[in-house]
Specification:
5-stranded mixed β-sheet, disordered N terminus, about 25% strand, D-Maltodextrin-Binding Protein, domain 2, alpha/beta, 2 domains
Amino acid sequence: MKKYLLSTAIAALFSSGYAVSSEPLHYYIIASQAQPFQIEEEGGAHEGMVTDIVEAVFQDSDYDINYHTYPFNRMISKLEARENDNWVTYGSPSWGNIQAENLSDIPIYNVKHSLLSSGKKPFEFNTIDDLEGKAVVLLLGFEYPNLEPYIAEGKLNEIRVKDYTAAFRVLNRTPGDTVFVEMESRIKYNLNDQNLDINDYQLQRFGSVISDYPIHLAFDPQMKPELQSFINQRLVEMRDNGQLDDIVGKYL
């Protein structure tokens, strides 16, 4: 009888307000500029390549994901200020900001950059010299260290835009005079998302200027070691069982 009462008391404890609560994990999302890596739908629903991977890592775990969505520059300032500890977003060793300081052990995707231009006046790109006299369309807030020397010396002019809709609009209005430099996966996703025909544009590899590089999950530099180990272990498991490739493949 005593054993039954003890079991009942334990069950009541974990079904009451005294139950052990889950630990928060803070996931940071770039607003409007990061598709297909991070996509925020109307009503606050979240998806995307990185988002799906983060959610899979913490599925059936003791961590609750708190979503934080900000414009790029504001997000960076909040990460640097550690407004929330134990945060996760995505980054690369090539970027040189806080998104490069503490990365997952294995990459989750390999990035390729391309040039997009209007198909009305096609041209052949081989070297940076082929862009002389053209304006390069770039997303507002992002850094492009491979292009900055050419912009600084006046070899390239830059046009900054807030999103992909604006970038495509510039190309359509100024065929032959402008090119859009961006990750190939983002270009294709956003053209398709906006019901634009890729055959109306010219897409060329830009690897001779911006080399391919890996994307990782990026962690709070002061993340708890046990949490970081948990994430890295889950990523390895997801790579080995094919789950990482399956998630990435949904958005390509």
